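Please go through the protein record below and see whether the fold suits the sequence. Record follows.
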Amino acid sequence: MKRLLREFTEVADKEIDLLIRSDEHSSVVRYFAKEFDGNFVYLALELCDCNLRQLVENNMWATYNIPTHGHPARPNLQGDAGMQLKRALQQLVDGVVYLHRLGIVHRDLKPLNVLVSSRMRLKISDMGLARKLEQDQSSFETVAGGSFGWRAAEQILGKKCNKSVDVFTIGCLLCVDS
């Protein structure tokens, strides 16, 4: 369940639209319903175990039968467990490629916005800052977007952005200290 202040109903509606457009891909979180209650709007989304940040910071690798090197940020990439993690990361990349084919630029990929469902499936979530490119559009102006520490250079500098902002962040997410 995602909760937003009612004043952000327009943002919620935009997010719903983008989630519905990308609903066919298994690496994008599923949207089910929207409800209002008092000062809040609620989005019913696919249930996931945790987000990528929690997985790493809380050393939850064992939940998915993935051993570590004794440090939570360093899962063991050998054997079947390593293949499971590599498949999950490939699914994440496939999800971003799918969004880009639809003309959707997420603009805020980060560990908090990558959910982990059962069997170590990574799901892209939180499309609140996403941008839908028009048919003939390849870039867009940006005033703000992305989260501190996860923004591409063009976002930080306020330059025209395109799909490469997501590619930059995917690179950051995939970076493993070997």
